[in-house]
Design goal:
The structure is a single chain. This protein is mostly helical and 141 residues long. The chain folds into two domains: 64 residues; 53 residues, no CATH class. Helix content is 50%, strand content 9%. It is built from two helices and four strands, in the order αββββα. The strands form two sheets. It has a two-stranded antiparallel sheet with strand order 1-2. Strands 3-4 form a two-stranded antiparallel sheet. A hairpin with a 5-residue loop joins β3 and β4. It is rod-shaped.
Length: 141
């Protein structure tokens, strides 16, 4: 066997091994690409379900809030010792565990938008200064 023939045989052997190997590498790369796609899709679905669950919990918590909390003043205590106190939603500036929340409101039976931030009566009788009242009114839409 000559050296040239041996070289040709080795090149043919290398090509015979390289072609299937390159096809396998190409297929594996395609599989990795689809696997990454499905993994991102699954993670996005899990994130969506978690956000939806948290949002549902938030809505349930707000729906369980008594309607009297949406007034500036509400009655607390038992029948014999009831007293008026500011609503927890009438704090200024509004305190919330939900970032970006600007305030609370309700639409009454007459279709009017009402918020507990601004009192219906004279604000000075509730200890609210005129500058704070002006800020509250600006906050009120």
């Amino acid at each position: 066997m000559t050296q040239r023939r041996l070289l040709l045989l080795l090149v043919l052997f290398f090509v015979a091994l390289a072609l299937p190997t390159s096809v396998l590498v190409y297929q594996a790369y395609g599989q990795l690409k689809w696997e990454a796609f499905y993994q991102h899709q699954r993670l996005a679905r899990e994130l969506t379900l978690r956000i939806d669950g948290d949002f549902r919990d938030l809505i349930e918590r707000e729906e369980s809030r008594p309607i009297s909390d949406y007034e500036f003043l509400n009655v607390s205590g038992s029948e014999g010792s009831a007293f008026l106190q500011p609503s927890p939603l009438s704090q200024f500036p509004p305190q919330s565990e939900l970032p970006g929340l600007l305030g609370y409101f309700q639409v009454d039976s007459a279709g009017q938008l009402r918020t507990p931030i601004v009192p219906d009566a004279d604000a000075s009788s509730y200890g609210i200064s005129s500058s704070e009242l002006q800020q509250r009114q600006q906050q009120d839409w």
